[in-house]
Specification:
The protein is α+β, with helices and mostly antiparallel strands. The chain has five helices and five strands. The protein has one domain. It binds zinc ion. Zinc ion binds next to strand 2 and helix 3.
Length: about 150
């Protein structure tokens, strides 16, 4: 019986994948600093609002961790500014790239953000974030493909 249970747990783990370890307090502080530097201290939704907050793309209440890939800089609070907007309107937030669905991995879920142009201005686009502060730009089509079937 114990062997059967062990086998079932192994199978379940293979489907779910290895657990990502919860970051330590020091790692969380570092993640906030990395996200703030990556996003150049600007709200990634409007590029001008203040005060700035470090928002979890996948909510902490849904298991979202304080890792660079799961953080974005937004203005406002849970009820004001861009942070308030994406908290209030989940459907918009998922469609426009401000939230990660509960079942998805923030490392593989497109994020909307600003990119600098050679002319010194900024433009909006889509990206995948890594946990070292890296940003990989992806096309609109690639973002839609990655989010396919997940948008209400
Ligand atoms: Zn904003």
């Amino acid at each position: 019986m114990a062997a059967l249970r062990r086998r079932a747990l192994q199978l379940a783990e293979a489907v779910i994948g290895p657990k990502v370890p919860k970051p330590t307090k020091a790692q969380e502080r570092q993640a906030y600093d990395i996200a703030l530097a990556r996003d150049e201290g600007r709200c990634q939704k409007c590029h001008r609002g203040t005060p700035l907050t470090r928002d979890h793309r996948l909510n902490r209440s849904q298991g979202g961790l304080t890792t660079p890939a799961n953080l974005q800089i937004l203005c406002g609070s849970g009820t004001t500014g861009c942070h308030g907007e994406v908290t209030h309107d989940l459907e918009m937030a998922l469609r426009e790239g401000w939230r990660v669905p509960a079942w998805a991995d923030p490392l593989r879920w497109p994020a909307a953000r600003y990119f600098a142009t050679p002319a010194g201005t900024v433009r909006k686009g889509w990206a995948l974030y890594d946990n070292a502060g890296g940003v990989t730009e992806i096309t609109d089509d690639e973002a839609r493909e990655l989010m396919e079937g997940a948008i209400p």
